[in-house]
Specification:
This protein is of the alpha/beta class and 298 residues long. The chain has one domain (2-230): Glycerol-3-phosphate (1)-acyltransferase (3-Layer(aba) Sandwich), CATH 3.40.1130. Helices cover 34% and strands 12% of the residues. It has eight helices and nine strands. It has helices at residues 2-18, 46-53, 71-83, 95-109, 134-142, 154-157, 190-208, 217-233, and strands at residues 22-24, 35-39, 58-63, 86-89, 113-116, 128-129, 146-152, 171-174, 212-213. α3 links the parallel β3 and β4. The chain starts with a helix and ends in a 65-residue tail after the last helix. Residues 246-253 and 259-298 have low confidence and may be disordered.
């Protein structure tokens, strides 16, 4: 009861009016019977815009954290998500994955529309990431068609971490149903499940215009978080002014040559010439002194 009040009286009209919600391909939604709406996931508000875009009720598989909050805020949040058609699932893997699958199958067996995000979590950067194969198992075991749904610009209306959305135009594009009945009975084949999931993600890529990255969104989030952590740990690099070249040392001035002693004036009375010594002049033929070695530059 509260779901229809929110959809038709309170939230639905407000979302359509304030955000100028544009919907394409609504004719592909079946008038009755079960089907899976497989959507890209850009924003927390995706689970509000998609139900507002179509007439039928949509039930989503939502992470259990929304239903386990403590205090008044936690209880109100859990009550709200139950009111808008969210079903809590544990996404830790293993037996939890089987429980989530069974929850989805119960919804499909009641002939309802099941909303699911194959990426498993919101895109951290606006790209489209590799899909989880749970959507393929649901399609085969539930024997239902899959309708690809592209949310447009919801991440700009409400980026991750922003509480209040911005009033901009957002869109919902619904593609033609994908029939995988040719794989009936092969839900245990992991290669078949991967092939079906990749086909769904390919259609989502075409509808949304997003760039596709072939890794899981959860792995991309971890990489981005690690990169942010490294950037915070990196020490601050201070700019160092360029070193100023020291002026070249001025070479020591060469002392002027010693002034030769003045010549001895000749005596008034010339003396007899002294004959040269018979032997060689001392030092005449001696090699010049070797220059002292220059010290090596350190």
């Amino acid at each position: 009861m509260l779901y229809w009040f929110l959809k038709r009286v309170l939230l639905g009209p407000i979302l359509r009016l304030l955000f100028t919600l544009q919907v394409e391909g609504v004719e592909h939604i079946p008038a009755d019977g079960a089907a899976i709406l497989a959507s890209n996931h850009l924003s927390f508000s995706d689970s509000f815009f998609l139900p507002a875009a179509i007439d039928r009720r949509v039930t989503f598989l939502a992470k259990s954290d929304y239903f386990t909050g403590r205090g008044l805020k936690g209880r109100l949040t859990a009550a709200f998500f139950r009111a808008v058609g969210q079903v809590p699932v544990d996404r830790t893997g293993g037996r939890a994955s089987d429980a989530a699958l069974e929850s989805g199958l119960r919804i499909l067996r009641r002939g309802e529309l099941l909303g699911i995000y194959p990426e498993g979590t919101r895109s951290p950067d606006g790209n489209l990431y590799r899909g989880r194969t749970g959507v393929a198992r649901l399609a085969l075991e539930g024997k239902v068609a899959v309708l690809p749904v592209a949310m447009i610009d919801t991440d700009k209306a409400q980026p991750t971490g922003q509480r209040l959305p911005r009033l901009i135009r957002v869109g919902v594009r619904i593609g033609e149903p994908l029939d995988f009945s040719r794989y009936e009975g092969m839900e245990g084949d992991r290669f078949v499940l991967r092939s079906i999931t990749d086909e769904i993600m390919y259609e989502l890529m075409l509808l949304s215009g997003q760039d596709y990255v072939d890794i899981y969104a959860s792995a991309a989030k971890k990489r981005l978080a690690a990169a942010r952590g490294k950037s915070k740990e990196r020490p601050e690099v201070r700019s160092v002014p360029p070193a100023v070249d020291a002026p070249a040392s001025t070479p020591a001035a060469t002392p002027p040559p010693a002034t030769p002693p003045p010549a001895t004036p000749p005596s008034a009375t010339p003396s007899a010439a002294t004959p040269p010594p018979a032997g060689p002049v001392a030092g005449a033929g001696s090699p010049p002194d070797e220059a002292a070695p220059m010290p090596k530059a350190s």
